[in-house]
Amino acid sequence: xxxSSSILLTIALAPLVGCLLAGFLGKQIxxxxxxxxxxxxxxxxxxxxxxxxxxxxxGGAPVYNHNLYTWFEIGKYTASVGFLxxxxxxxxxxxVTFVSLLVHVYTIGYMADDDxxxxxxxxxxxxxxxxxxxxxxxxxxxLFFGWEAVGLVSYLLIGFWYKRPTAIFANxxxxxxNRVGDFGFLLGIGAILYFLGTLDYATAFAAAPTLAGxxxxxxxxxxxxxxxVICILLFIGAMGKSAQVPLHVWLPDSMEGPTPISxxxxxxTMVTAGIFMVARMSPLYELSESALxxxxxxxxxxxxxxxxxxxxQNDIKRVVAYSTLSQLGYMTVALGVxxxxxxVFHLMTHAFFKALLxxxxxxxxxxxxxxxxxxxxxxxxxxxxxxxxxxxxxxxxLCGVPFFSGFYSKDSIIDAVHESHRWxxxxxxxxxxxxxxxxATYTFRQMYMTFHGKERFKVVEHHGHHDAHGHxxxxxxxxxxxxxVLHHAPKESPWVVTLPLILLAIPSLxxxxxxxxxxxxxxxxxxxxxxxxANNVLGEIGKEFDGSLAMALHGFAQLPFILVLVxxxxxxxxxxxxxxxADKIKTALKPIWVILDRKYWVDNIYFAVFARGGVALGxxxxxxxxAAVIDGVLIDGSASTIQRIASGVRRxxxxxxxxxxxxxxxxLILLMGGYLLVRQ
Amino acid sequence: MFxxxxxxxxxxxxxxxxxxxxxxxxxxxxxxxLSLLVAILTFAVSLFLIPQYNGDTGGMQLAESHVxxxxxxVHYALAVDGIxxxxxxxxxxxxxxxxxxxxxxxxxxxHQYMAAMLxxxxxxxxxxxxxxxxxxxxxxxxxxxxxxxxxxxWGGPRRVYATLKFFIYTFMGSIFMLIGLIYLYxxxxxxxxxxxxxxxxxxxxxxxxxxxxxIAFAVKVPMVPVHTWLPDAHVEAPTGxxxxxxxxxxxxxxxxxxxxxxxxxxxxxxxFAWLVILLSLIAVVYIGYVALVQEDxxxxxxxxxxxxxxxxTLGIFIxxxxxxxxxxxxxxxxxxxxxxxxxxxxxxxxxxxxxxxGVLYDRMHTRLIKDYGGVINVMPWxxxxxxxxxxxxxxxxxxxxxxxxxxxxxxxxSANPWIAxxxxxxxxxxxxxxxxxxxxxxxxxxxxxxxxxMKDINGRETLVLGAFAALVLIIGVWPxxxxxxxxxxxxxxxxxxxxxKV
Lengths: 680, 502
What we know:
heterodimer, A: mainly alpha, two-stranded antiparallel sheet, B: 502 residues, mainly alpha, Proton_antipo_N (chain A), NU5C-like (chain A), NADH-quinone oxidoreductase subunit L (chain A), membrane (chain A), transmembrane (chain A)
């Protein structure tokens, strides 16, 4: 039975309705009203998404691909708004609405005392709508709409606490860096329209084989392969949105936003839009080896080098942020070796365990009264057991310990890279394997510093302080009080916070075990993802696959797990038994530590070149071009030239009669002389 | 009524200005209500254009023609096509909003201000209706007078410098057009635009005429390097003057290219298309950087207007490359439509941006960015609109600002990827100057006690900004009705591009 349009519209629009109600009528409906309507919208959306997934996989519903209305129609070019619902979309819809729903619930606890409560709910519902429009689109225009709309909401949410200078710097930076990506993305759409003559996915993919042999004239003598140009331009968009090197700089700064959105937008969903997009465009990417190699190298670089920065971070959220950068690198690597299903599979497992880690970190931050520095934590496990256990589940999944969901997705990516012979795959293999060690190192370090070892904070009871609950410190007070001193003992967060943690821990633990076979090796995605026979690395690995259990058991003997084990032993020794070693290592490897602490100076260079350079260039154009040349020389210059001529001419009008008489006589003589000359 | 619909549209606001003037300075409220009534009536009459205009044929319709100066064979000839209809609707719509926007803001001689606005509105509609070149020229020049008065009387401290610069610039430009028109008249014996379009001209003649038209319209658009009057005029103009200037008057430059350069001198236009394209790209990139460093909000938005209008000229002239070099009429239509949509959209977005600045100026009496900061803390509803219009100014999909730029960039890529590359740079630089402005004005802690005392927008201001917001969003979400309205006219124009006169 075909999916009905009204169900799909309801899925997309329910969060939008919630957003509008909470946003415009926030005062009237109050806090409870705002979270009720938005959560209701998400419940409807999430429930129906599960229904759609069921229909598509088990209910025998065919792929849905219909336009809702025409956006414009000019000549042979048509742009529409419509939905394409296949297995890839259905899976994304479930992931997006499920994580979003849990984040909505979590927000009730996390933002309980914030003045912008209703506004926050409005924004995250708007985000959900935008993200759904992005994943459900059946054409490039709507894709770009969703693409930029999630960017807008990200901008609004990073700058949610708009009084903080760091937050409003970070949101501007995020938007501009994303715009650099979108710049490439838009040109990519232009290239698609030029070569394929359509903005519709299905038509474009059907016409994709005609790209073979076509080139784009860059100069008169240089011609680039059409498919490569299209794919690289589109991928530049993905580099912005999915924070790939060298456009990764905005993601760590985005941690200025409230933690729920770090989980939802900057870990689970929005940043994976680029991964989703490339997987969606697989029929195009399969045409260009060069573009895929480019993707591979960019992804591998991010996977390793951004992960390394995570090791030196002390802010609990920033560790998770760099971990996200590194994991996005893994997904991109998978795309680069044509293991699209592997990338999307890791996208899914990562959405669960990374949302869990962020929300867990948020739970810790609540308990610590908005202290984010792990140097003032330690020993929290006895105060908040649910957060502690669920975060361990997320961490082990992130490290890729066998049986956890992250193991199935991450190890498959590493295997796929090993299997691939594409240019750059050797480098990528090195990066992802070493990356496994790096991942485990920062993850265990974070867990130990937060939950284990000695308590590095003091509890000083303030009896004069009448606030009874643990969340009284306003966010803006963050940093004003003495670090490491709490007025109340940390305690476990309320159920609205812990319930989402538990609900995310379950899929973090189990989803890989149950879905690895169909999603990676069972051609689950069907026609949604296209891999040509020669590139089918997952197919090769699949030949040796004999069940989730065997894969996990086999995983214990593999190199990645051994590296995780080594990292585990090292970090356990350092952070549980001999903390002074950490400082010794830091001193011994000072140069490396500086490089990592300064994040390879990338931010500084960008700021100096693009921000300061841009302003300097603008000043030069303004003062030099507009003011000096155009107004100074051309306008005021010609005005003064006219004035000079005029003052010269004025001398002729002296007012003396004999001057005029003399001029008349002179004129007469000239005229008559001329007349005589002509007559002769 | 429908036989003289266009005349009615032109002269209703002009005649309506008389009772407004007569209301005098003693009865300011009567003058306000009268002028609002006239503006609403004009808008209502303009709505009749939609059913009356037949969008399927695309030719000039609702024609009126009377001999005006028999000796010179000048006619009072009016007609409209889809593009004119869209621009007239823009004019009458903005006409209402500037009256409401000026309501209690203009305390000094409000009756004269309102009357000048109404006269200006009528003359601008005249420009969009005229099919006789001399009549066009008369409206084109006459329009300067009320604008000159608006800036000169209700303007800021340097208004005399600004008005002179504005007047001389535009007047100097149009002198060349007049010379060109006289030449054409001597050749053809008529000012009828339709006849002139079929007049055979050598490439050399066309080139001279092309530059005569280019100078006139480039000043109006304005294009680099004749744009420097615009920031000065905007800074000194009252809010309503800025809104009309940005929303409608600049469009007359783009409209002039369509009515004069394209049909009369197609070969020269094609020959020099590279020049206009180059200047348009300079407008996007160079002006983008200049906008970035402005310290005055109005100047920033004025420069941003120059950059955005670059897409109009780019879209029009890219069509030449596409038709003449590749025979790709579909992409040419896309580019041309993009230019047209950009004109309409920029009317709403820039009008809204200037209205926002007006709201701030009315409270603080300063336009310097550094005097603001943290406005969102005291004016949340204003902040909502400001961010919305800022996003439209950055060309965010879902707002009207995206539609035209998107079409033009896509069409440019088909002509030459390098052109698209520079045009698409607006995504970055446009966002940079707009959002940096928003950051400094809106976000952050309240920076001083004056900001702390600011009151959020009142009902009247909400009405104006809300009306702009509605159109920005409607066109952004569903541009099809607008493109459909102009489609057959654009198609005809593109067909004209392919016709060689030499």
